[in-house]
Amino acid sequence: MQAISTFANAFMSVFNAGAETLMGWVTGIIPTVICLMTAVNSVIKLIGEDRVENFCQKITGNFICRYLVLPVLAVICLANPMCYTFGRFVEEKYKPAYYDAAVSFVHPVTGLFPHANAGELFVYMGIAAGVEKLGFPLGDLAVRYFIVGLIVILIRGIVTERIYAILAKRA
Fold it and tell me: Whole-model pTM?
């Protein structure tokens, strides 16, 4: 009888811990995410969706803009998974590389722009909890993630573009 009671209490403690985490999010990160989403959508509406699309099409001729600027804008403005739709501004032969760059940026952006990928937030928050426990500031972590993310997406975009070009010649 004691074993059943112990198991039931342990089982319920898992859900209680989940409820505490959820309440932390409801009073902390969720309002921040909603405000960020509202701000980004407002800026796009103020600028004009057509102007944003025209700007994106113009910058895709340059590989730095194609694999650095465009994915960053897409992830911050549209969030995951809508950010991949910015691939429509890229020539067909560059789409695999654009996608690789964009998909590689949805985690590093989470520290500064949590609205961009709510699905990755739990990973960042887990790492952030450990960093806070060690007494280090979260801002430094978020900025470092962001900078490393920029470097990685540029490299991945260029490498994937080259791999695709080699494979396309074989076909």
Answer: 0.71
* Average pLDDT score, the chain: 88
Average pLDDT, integer, range 55-64: 87
Q: How far is Cα 77 from Cα 135, in angstroms, rounded to an integer? A: 32
107 is written with which tokens? 């985690």
Cβ–Cβ < 8 Å for 113, 83: no
The predicted pLDDT at position 24 comes to: 81
Torsion angle, alpha carbons of 36, 39, 45, 49, to 10: -40
Residue whose structure tokens are 């099409």: 57
Residue 126 has pLDDT above 90, yes or no: no
Provide the pLDDT for residue 102. Answer: 96
- Report which of 59, 26, 34, 49 is spatially closest to residue 113, judged by C-alpha positions: 34
